[in-house]
Design a protein that fits this description.
5-stranded antiparallel β-sheet; 6-stranded antiparallel β-sheet; alpha+beta; 16 strands; 5 helices; 275 residues; single chain; 21% helix
Length: 275
């Protein structure tokens, strides 16, 4: 190499070495921004840049591998799976495979940044409702995110039921997602009272026999959840004491969906890094 190119080559080399970390940082920041507006986080066992869990480890035990899918049995509740949220999103969809075992009721919840007092719960399994939904038992009406189970087919649609409900002592409710124009007792986990002829719920039973089943639940994130840097997914079996041969789960997947990169999104992402 001619001597006159030495200083220029040295300068270019220094610029190249300086550009490499800057380029890497820019690429990592762009990936962290999730420019497509959708972040898929899945792994089993759960690990990776966005997922951690299940925790605490003292509340679970591993199942033997089955169909190449390692699962966990819940020994105590609740059990948590932590999901890092690199920037604001609008919705979270959770998918997992669940075996209720001996559990009567299983819930999925969401906590922003470990704030247990701000938990959002959705039903994942209810043994009584699944039993009643099996063929030949109670009839079902569905609409507007609600399910009405009837001991006998009195109402033809949900609108008629809500406009002219029966006597309150004949109704039981379970996780209805909005306020009702009447008061009714909660459906007990153990069974249906003989006086109950109608059950109104936000849970949609499948009526399939117990065993491994795919559960999909979607959460519309609140303002507080959108601004949280981490979301804690809760698997809860609220019975006391927990039944022997309790619930098990496997194959966890979380999908965060939101806007493509805009100025508010960029500002929300920057706020997490430069607090």
């Amino acid at each position: 190499m001619p001597e006159r190119f030495g200083p220029r080559w040295l300068t270019l080399s220094r610029l190249a070495w300086a550009a490499i970390p800057l380029t890497l940082f820019a690429w990592l920041a762009w990936v962290d921004l999730v420019p497509s507006g959708q972040l898929l986080a899945e792994a089993w066992p759960i690990r990776g840049p966005y997922l951690r869990g299940p925790v605490p480890e003292s509340r679970i035990e591993p199942l033997l591998p089955s169909d190449f899918a390692l699962g966990y049995r819940v020994l105590a509740e609740p059990v948590y799976i932590d999901l890092q949220q690199p920037r604001p999103f609008r919705t979270l969809s959770i998918q997992l495979e669940l075996d209720p075992g001996g559990a009567q009721v299983i819930d999925l919840g969401l906590i922003p940044d470990g704030r247990a007092d701000h938990m959002t719960l959705q039903p994942a399994y209810h043994r009584v409702l699944e039993h009643l939904a099996q063929e030949g038992k109670w009839t079902q009406l569905q609409g507007g995110g609600l399910v009405l189970l009837q001991r006998t087919s009195v109402y033809l649609n949900l609108d008629d039921f809500l406009r002219q409900p029966p006597a309150e002592e004949k109704i039981a409710v379970y996780r209805v997602p909005f306020d009702l124009p009447f008061t009714a007792a909660a459906l007990p986990p153990s069974g249906v009272a003989s006086s109950t002829d109608f059950i109104l719920t936000g849970y949609q039973p499948t009526g399939v026999p117990d065993g491994w089943r795919k559960i999909v639940r979607s959460f519309l994130l609140t303002t507080e959840q959108q601004s949280a840097s981490s979301l804690r997914v809760v698997v809860s079996v609220p019975e006391r004491p927990l039944p022997r041969g309790g619930a098990s789960f496997r194959m966890f997947r979380a999908t965060l969906s939101g806007d493509r990169v805009t100025w508010p999104v960029l500002r929300g992402w920057a706020a997490r890094w430069f607090r």
